[in-house]
Design a protein that fits this description.
single chain; alpha+beta; Metal Transport, Frataxin, Chain A; 3-stranded antiparallel sheet; globular
Length: 72
């Protein structure tokens, strides 16, 4: 099992864009991403996003940690 690194919100958005997610809107420090046929995801635009929240984002995006690390 791959250990997830601590990333910024912008790095997570950039990696999810490679899968097909696009930024639809932003309200405050939260970025909303949408992808046709997939669940919409909200990513906080923080300098540091913890591992627990990153796991939740990956679960919503239906990605494994290994798949996500390859996108980085």
């Amino acid at each position: 099992m791959t250990r997830l690194s601590i990333l910024s919100g912008k790095a997570i958005v950039k990696a999810l864009a490679k899968v097909g997610y696009q930024e639809t809107r932003q309200r405050g420090s939260h970025i909303r991403l949408a992808c046709p046929g997939m669940t919409s995801i909200t990513v906080p635009n923080y300098k540091v996003v913890g591992r627990g929240l990153l796991k939740k984002i990956l679960r919503d995006a239906e990605l494994s940690a290994e798949e996500f690390m390859k996108l980085l």
